[in-house]
Design a protein that fits this description.
Low-confidence stretches: none
Distance between the termini: 7 Å
Mean pLDDT: 95
Structural class: alpha+beta
Shape: globular
Helix content: 25-40%
Strand content: 15-25%
Number of helices: 10
CATH topology of the largest domain: Ribosomal Protein S5, domain 2
Largest sheet: 7 strands, mixed
Number of strands: 11
Number of domains: 2
Length: 312
Amino acid sequence: MIQIRIPATTANLGPGFDCMGLALDLWNTFELRLEGPKGDVQVHVIGEGENKLPADSSNLVIQLIKERLGMRYEGLDKGVLLRCHAGVPCASGLGSSSTAVLAATTFTHALELYLSGISDIEPEMLDRHQILRDAMLVEGHGDNVGPAMEGGLLLIMPNNGDIIYKKVPFSKFRVVVCVPEFDYFTSQARARLPKTVSYADAIFNLGRAMFVLQALQEGDDALLRSACEDRLHEPYRLPDIPGAIEAKGAALRAGAVAVALSGAGPGVIAFARESHADIGRAMQAAFREAGLTARWWAPDATNDGATIRRLP
């Protein structure tokens, strides 16, 4: 039926809380086919999360499809087969759950066409803007699903029931992401945030978010180092993650230009021009000192977003 290939993302980029994100060259590929007996659900996960993610109808993608279709789901005349080839680590701050949300939303739109009587569904029949809007409604914010769909460096915000987003040109670079084995889910990270913030902290972030954007556009490393600071979420989340504060410092000492939490964490992302392996190992060692095993990746930022194709 339909396949969608979706990149990892890193959200916030320091001070751009909930409104800025960047696509990275790590990918999850989801395939949906209708086959087997009516009501049957098969889920196969290969790669990251292979032994962690549910391989039955409790899988997030299947759950979201069923929620969106409601009673219409019972109208499917065949079973559902979901395959996921995962390169994005789970619960890492790299948008793994957002790829699942985006895949589920895309598949839901395709199944709605199928239930309306269209059996041969082509990618151009699917409204990408509507898919992104619906995915953002599920997520509650668009800084992961936005760049996952559109690729590149993306600004996104809700607007009277719709969304506004802008893909911004950026200077190509590679990042280092180090992810500790530590359960720190988005719901926990959200619960750590204060209900109100001061004008001083809001102003601090507004100015820096604009300059982070400028620095990434122009490849201005000195400006990025100065601007990549945050007062809205990192001060509340970093202390929850053993070794995260030390990993940030280790990355800078190893040659990183700027360092931030990747999304809500627990992953830490370092922007760098060189010494990527040294930076990755330095962050890994900092987490190890705190008692956590960690892995690191050094993906390029990518201008490519989700690609949808019809399966043979």
